[in-house]
Amino acid sequence: MGFLEDFQASVETLPAMLHKNYSLMRELDRSLQGVQLENEQRCQQEIEDIKHGLESGSITFEPAKLKFSDEAVEEQKHCVRIADEKVALATQTYDLVDAHIQQLDQYMRKLEEYRQEKEAAAAAAAVADTVVAATSATPASAGTSRFAAADPAPKSGRAGERGRGGRKKAKVPTEPPPIDLELPVDPNEPTYCFCNQVSYGEMVACDNPECKIEWFHFGCVGVKEQPKGKWYCGSCISYQKKRKGK
């Protein structure tokens, strides 16, 4: 069961890493809001100065020369850089969580395989014990008459009663269905697909821009790999067929 300890060790560091990334994104938000406010005020002041200059005649109307100052343009570029950094950090955080989800899926499959192997071994041991018990319980008088032993039909009277009242066959235990391991889900996390579950594993998007669900799990829609070209879910295909039929 070492894989469980490995997964637990990897998950223990996840909250700290997420907290660090979220803190950085908050700092970037505050920085971006400050630069945007300064830039808006600067641009508004420059626009007012240009209006007054045109009205007073101190500035001639030349569109090529009517532009914001270098400081205002540099502030706008700085806002774009901060926004790009925030997007990169958000993508990194998403990939980090997604990697742990995929790792959890792998460990769950390993756990299920381990459980099945253990139950199969227990079933085999039960069958072996049944065979041993049947061999040791054979009566010594069974070989008194090889002709009588060879006759499969039960005799009438007490002999028939003994035959019907003999030892019952042991039932070989069958493999129980797989255990449905349910994980706690954040109630605020969005859900997708026909199954109305959160995002996990590989998913495919419906190419209908008006699709109400949009994203689907591979297993729920019978997809094994990313479709080539456009792909539509069953609901959108049925709706399109109804519209064409009208």
- What global shape is seen? elongated
Unreliable parts:
140-181
Question: Structural class of the secondary elements?
Answer: mainly alpha
Helical content (DSSP H or I, runs of 4+): 55-70%
Number of DSSP helical runs: 7
Tally of strands: 2
Rounded to an integer in angstroms, the radius of gyration calculated over CA atoms is 37 Å
User: What is the strand content?
Assistant: under 5%
Strand order of the largest sheet: 1-2
Largest sheet: 2 strands, antiparallel
Head-to-tail CA distance between termini: 60 Å
Task: Describe the 3D structure.
By secondary structure, the protein is an all-alpha fold. It contains seven helices and two strands. The protein has helices at 2-12, 14-56, 70-136, 146-150, 158-164, 218-221, 234-245; strands spanning 203-205, 215-217. The model is unreliable at 140-181 (pLDDT under 50).
Quick tags:
mainly alpha
How is the topology of this model organized?
Elements (H helix, E strand, L loop, with lengths): L1 H11 L1 H43 L13 H67 L9 H5 L7 H7 L38 E3 L9 E3 H4 L12 H12 L1
Antiparallel strand pairs: 1-2
Summarize the structure.
This protein has 246 residues and is an all-alpha fold.
